[in-house]
Amino acid sequence: MSPSDSCFIRHFSHFAPLSDRDKHLLKKLEVNPVSVNAGTTLWETGDPAGRFGVLSQGWAFSCRYMEDGTRQILDIHIPGDVIGLGEYAFHHRLNTVVTLTKSEICYFPHKHLQEVFDESSTLTSLFFTIAGHHQALLTERLINMARRNAQQKLAHFLYETLQRMQRIGACNANRIELPLSQQLIADLLGISTVHISRTFAVFREQGLVFRKRQWVEIPDVHALACVAEFDGKYLDGGLSLPSEAPRQSSTV
Amino acid sequence: MSPSDSCFIRHFSHFAPLSDRDKHLLKKLEVNPVSVNAGTTLWETGDPAGRFGVLSQGWAFSCRYMEDGTRQILDIHIPGDVIGLGEYAFHHRLNTVVTLTKSEICYFPHKHLQEVFDESSTLTSLFFTIAGHHQALLTERLINMARRNAQQKLAHFLYETLQRMQRIGACNANRIELPLSQQLIADLLGISTVHISRTFAVFREQGLVFRKRQWVEIPDVHALACVAEFDGKYLDGGLSLPSEAPRQSSTV
DNA sequence: CGACGGCTTGAGGCATTTCAAGCCTAGTGG
DNA sequence: CCACTAGGCTTGAAATGCCTCAAGCCGTCG
Prior knowledge:
Chain A has about 250 residues and is an alpha+beta fold. The first copy, chain A, is built from eight helices and eleven strands.
């Protein structure tokens, strides 16, 4: 994998090795990255949906606005994330996507996806893998919402984010940059901002998590995982190719 | 679509018309349906995952058992539902699937799916559509968990189930069979059984919902949708083929 | 008939929310 | 360099939705 590979190819290589032909196919289809400022709405609920995106730089989030003016944040996107692929089946966007920082995004029209389906079953499998991965994340979040209290929810979110950041090599072992306000975390976890603040306070007293501005420090990562009852299996899905040995699951 | 079409073909025809060649391809790959009794575990978390299934008859549910012995039910499956497709990306099952009634299921090995990817981009698109559909359902449930109170959760679940049953032609306008105990609904919605009972009691007093054994009667479906703040867009994703006119969305 | 699972009802308790006020801190303009 | 401001965060107090525990009821099945 050379540095000149696109963000997309880098992302895909994560799941399985790509042939040069597949790389070529992907590169041919890719439109050049677009730069956008923090706070940019990439698309909104109801917009026509004809393409998906890969976030090559920056942070973003997907959300849904409710009738009462509140919003539920559905996903926090970090570099390398595929965004809006699940809306392939729909004519209009279901969710709104907004950038949190200055970002770069590559767009891929759905009709190019059809070409991929026609030409490479390896890439098709990979897209399926990504979709399955996304579904596993969503499922885990559903459980998080339904079954855990505020401390567990927050611990789970922090630990999951740490893992995802490490996976893309964007943080060291126990410190992550997290450009999210408590308001945003509240909207993500379905908890009031007041209670997010209190929960962080508890973690601080326990020496579990220290949050200073955009940085979160986690002295004992394992302890945090225990609070969250975190089971990392759902993050580890790779592509099941005969040539590939099963991956180790990083269960905690 | 002839009555001799498999459960799978019937399910797929729902999203887009199939050519005879595609039908033939699907039929060729399909293993004969398997009959199982109520309460049968089709697979469990941790089992090797090498195939997915289509439920052709009966009810089932997917769930995840928690460390404390409780469980979160992730999905209720009705006839025509594709089960376990999201685990394509994983070597082992993430979720447990159990039948609720006497059921019939058709299994499809993942390697057959690869053949479909090789031979028909229409079917590939369809599988993608199904995956996207499933993701939309999950997202909606996430919102349901995070943002709504017990009455809204229950109303939303009932309304969604009514819609899904109507879609497969398995119920009339305001009465559905629902072979789920209150315990099960509680585990699905993340609410205690006691509170499920009380919430049904409130609905009964309001004349909104009457539950008698396995049957649920909803005199005013629209009123229920209002309680749930139900927006049906997420149920309506079809395949975006150039030849196909956009579907009407049944927003309430 | 007796037993069991599923449902209902009551009372008390707890996690989280809401409302409200005050505090830090970064950024701005004089 | 210092006031001023605004947004984000913290803290307290009261309210509430849901949970837990516990007892009783009802219908089904052996």
